[in-house]
């Protein structure tokens, strides 16, 4: 008995270590080293985000990249449409992005990121895909302000392309304007194209403006037509600025019976 105690006192630690190693080896064999993976996960967990947080972060980043791609593709498509329009109409000019638009003046004016350093001048013609948008009324070295033809204070001399019946349009703060004719019985019908007239001294003749949507020949004091603008003014993101071949004047040249406005085009 004494010999056994003496042996245990001398070799107990070694026997315990051997037993621990044998148990550890058996555990590794039975779990395919899973115990080490579990231990690693426990020790490294404080330095890692939770799986849910990591997944959420990766999902958010992926969605952000997808949205950027969609936005760039959409912007590129709109710009390409504008460039195609300029090429098809043989319209040389400065392509400018729209950078400013007040919510309370949405249909009246906008700001573009081109100015006098780019050759833009007061009175220059501003067009978008589809037709006339407005004209430049203020210029800084890097930006310009555009007065839109949809502004209620604007007046533009126009003509019915098919019949040459003339009049002027006034804005209504929307995508449609009203054309008031000079003739008492104009030759006009729904679907007729409308363009700037030769009487306008603020715009060259022949610029596309819109299409006749409806006609009221009984309107007093002069017949009227509702014109849908062909350029999507409410969604403009790019415009073309071209030099104006006509000297800017305070008002369009109109017959004596045409009404006047505070600021006409």
What would you note in describing this structure?
By secondary structure, the chain is an alpha+beta fold. Strand 4 (131-139) and strand 5 (144-148) form a beta hairpin. It contains three helices and twelve strands. The strands form two sheets. Strands 1-2-5-4-3-12 form a six-stranded antiparallel beta barrel. The protein has a six-stranded antiparallel beta barrel with strand order 6-7-8-11-10-9. It starts with a helix and ends in a 23-residue tail after the last strand. Residues 248-263 have low confidence and may be disordered. The longest helix has 38 residues, at 51-88. The chain is elongated. 30% of the residues lie in helices and 26% in strands.
């Amino acid at each position: 008995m004494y010999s056994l105690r003496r042996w245990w006192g001398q070799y107990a630690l070694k026997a315990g270590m051997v037993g621990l190693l044998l148990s550890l080896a058996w555990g590794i064999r039975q779990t395919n080293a899973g115990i080490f993976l579990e231990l690693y996960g426990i020790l490294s967990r404080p330095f890692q985000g939770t799986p849910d947080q990591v997944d959420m972060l990766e999902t958010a980043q992926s969605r952000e990249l997808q949205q950027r791609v969609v936005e760039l593709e959409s912007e590129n498509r709109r710009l390409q449409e504008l460039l195609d329009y300029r090429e098809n109409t043989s319209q040389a000019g400065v392509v400018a992005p729209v950078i400013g638009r007040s919510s309370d003046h949405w249909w009246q004016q906008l700001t573009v990121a081109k100015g006098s350093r780019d050759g833009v001048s007061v009175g220059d013609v501003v067009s978008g895909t589809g037709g006339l948008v407005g004209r430049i009324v203020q210029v800084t070295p890097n930006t310009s302000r555009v007065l839109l033809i949809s502004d209620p204070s604007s007046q533009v001399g126009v003509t019915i392309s098919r019949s040459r019946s003339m009049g002027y349009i006034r804005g209504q703060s929307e995508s449609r304007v009203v054309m008031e004719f000079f003739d008492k019985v104009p030759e006009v019908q729904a679907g007729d194209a409308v363009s700037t007239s030769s009487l306008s001294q603020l715009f060259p003749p022949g610029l596309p403006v819109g299409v006749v949507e409806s006609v009221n020949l009984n309107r007093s004091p002069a017949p009227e037509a509702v014109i849908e603008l062909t350029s999507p003014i409410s969604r403009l993101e790019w415009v073309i600025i071209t030099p104006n071949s006509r000297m800017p004047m305070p008002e369009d040249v109109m017959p004596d019976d045409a009404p006047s406005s505070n600021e006409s085009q």
